[in-house]
Amino acid sequence: MSDCIFCRIVEGEIPAQKVFEDDEILAFKDIHPIAPVHILVIPKRHIESLDASVESDANVFGRMLVKAGPIAREVGAHDGFRTIINTGRIGRQEVYHLHMHIIGGGDPLPAMIKY
Ligand code: AMP
Ligand code: ZN
Question: Relative to the CA of 96, which ligand 1 atom is closest?
C-alpha cells in the first residue's frame, strides 16, 4: 500500500469526490475548498513535484492543462479560473504528489500573490 495520499485516492483506497478521470489523469474536489470551485488535477502516475519532473512527463502535463477548462466548466466555473501548482518548500507544497489546483466559481479572485 502506498503512503502517498493521492496515490491512494487513485487506487480507490481513500474516497474522493471525483469530477473527471481518464487513463492518465484524475480530478477531484479539494477537501478544504478555498473557493466555490476548488478542484485538484493530478497525474495518476506518482510524480513528486514539478521540480522532480522529466521530459517524459510532458504529455501528462499537457493533458492536465488541456482538460482544465472543460473540468472547470463542468463544476460551475464558467467565466475563468486560476490554476496553481505549489512546488517544494518555498512554494508551500503540502502533498508531494504533483497536483494542479483549479480555483474559481465565485467573485473575481484577489490579484496575484502579494509578497
Ligand atoms: P498543496 O500541496 O499545498 O498545493 O495543497 C494540497 C491540497 O490537498 C490542499 O488544498 C488540501 O486541502 C488538499 N488535500 C489534502 N488531502 C486531501 C484529500 N484526501 N482529498 C482532497 N484534497 C486533499
Ligand atoms: Zn503519489
Answer: 2
